[in-house]
Automatic annotation (TrEMBL):
Catalyzes the dephosphorylation of undecaprenyl diphosphate (UPP). Confers resistance to bacitracin. It comes from Paenibacillus pseudetheri. It is a multi-pass membrane protein. It catalyses: di-trans,octa-cis-undecaprenyl diphosphate + H2O = di-trans,octa-cis-undecaprenyl phosphate + phosphate + H(+). Keywords: Antibiotic resistance, Cell membrane, Cell shape, Cell wall biogenesis/degradation, Hydrolase, Membrane, Peptidoglycan synthesis, Transmembrane, Transmembrane helix. Bacitracin is thought to be involved in the inhibition of peptidoglycan synthesis by sequestering undecaprenyl diphosphate, thereby reducing the pool of lipid carrier available. Its main location: membrane. Its EC number is 3.6.1.27. This is Undecaprenyl-diphosphatase. NCBIfam families: PRK00281.1-4, undec_PP_bacA. The chain crosses the membrane at residues 48-67, 88-107, 113-133, 154-173, 193-214, 226-247, 253-273. It is found in: Cell membrane. Coiled coil: none annotated. The lineage of its organism: Bacteria, Bacillati, Bacillota, Bacilli, Bacillales. One of its GO terms (molecular function) is undecaprenyl-diphosphatase activity.
């Protein structure tokens, strides 16, 4: 690894982690194009580190909401700096992450055995189709009952959690793609689905990255630590900016646009990796 490689990979991670385009697919394609072996242990550790940078970014964006969920935020009293009361609570978050965490815990080795370039290619296509269907149904067939994050019901939170299982069992499907689509198919608005998807990313990604890091800590050496620090910081900054911009322009960037991009990425996958 060199500095340029570290920067490129961190930028790719920061851009793709939270938008529904599959960060896994992008990282596989990028590392392949850069000439890294698929099972390079240092590269695997580096990917965990830059993912942690992205997690920190999303935690910062949703810091007030996180504090409220932890009981640190207070009800609004009309004074500046006091966070408003929230109807969303930890039960919603637990329902949103428990199904995926349970599947990941009991099927970790099985999931790893399924991982491969062809798996990711088809996941990109299937995820794109789900996103198109979810947007079409959400706009025409389903009455939206949760326009904002605080309107979310326990049933809708659980439904999103169940859809998240798809991304756990099918690498490359996209965690945000499955959860946002699941929310929209459950009567949740596009914006509220994205908000909840980003929010539940914090605990589930911390758990997954922390667990993987236990197997990779030996790769933190004097030769690699500099690259890890660079990657962490760049991924953090890029992910923060991407989430802010995505939520600002969410009404103008439809899921169908991301789906089309995924189909193009799948074609690139086929040309550069499958052939």
């Amino acid at each position: 690894m060199d500095t340029i490689t570290a920067i490129i990979l961190a930028i790719v991670e920061g851009i793709t982690e939270f938008i529904p385009v599959s960060s896994t697919g992008h990282m596989i394609l990028t590392t392949k194009l850069l000439g890294f072996a698929e099972q390079d242990s240092i590269m695997k550790t580096y990917e965990i580190v830059i993912q942690l940078g992205a997690i920190l970014a999303i935690a910062l964006v949703y810091r007030k909401r996180v504090l409220n969920l932890l009981g640190i935020g207070r009800s609004s009293s009309g004074r500046g700096g006091v966070m408003p009361a929230s109807r969303l609570n930890l039960i919603h978050v637990i329902l949103g992450i428990a199904p995926a965490l349970a599947v990941a815990f009991f099927a970790r080795d099985f999931i790893k055995s399924l991982f491969g370039a062809s798996t990711v290619l088809w996941a990109l296509v299937a995820g794109g189709i789900l996103m198109i269907v979810a947007e079409w149904v959400n706009r025409r067939k389903i009455r939206i009952t949760a326009h904002e994050l605080d309107d979310l019901s326990y049933g809708q939170a659980l439904a999103i959690g169940l859809y998240q299982i798809i991304s756990v069992l099918w690498p490359g499907f996209s965690r945000s793609g499955s959860t946002i689509s699941g929310g929209m198919l459950s009567g949740v608005s596009y914006k509220a689905s994205a908000d909840f998807s980003f929010l539940i990313a914090i605990p589930i990604m911390c758990a997954a990255s922390g667990y993987e890091l236990l197997d990779s800590y030996k790769n933190f050496t004097s030769e690699t630590i500099g690259y890890f620090v660079i990657g962490f910081l760049i991924s953090f900054v890029v992910a923060y900016l991407v989430v802010i911009l995505f939520m600002k322009w969410i009404q103008k960037i439809r899921l169908t646009h991301f789906a089309i991009y995924r189909f193009i990425l799948a074609a690139i996958f086929w040309l550069f990796i499958m052939r």
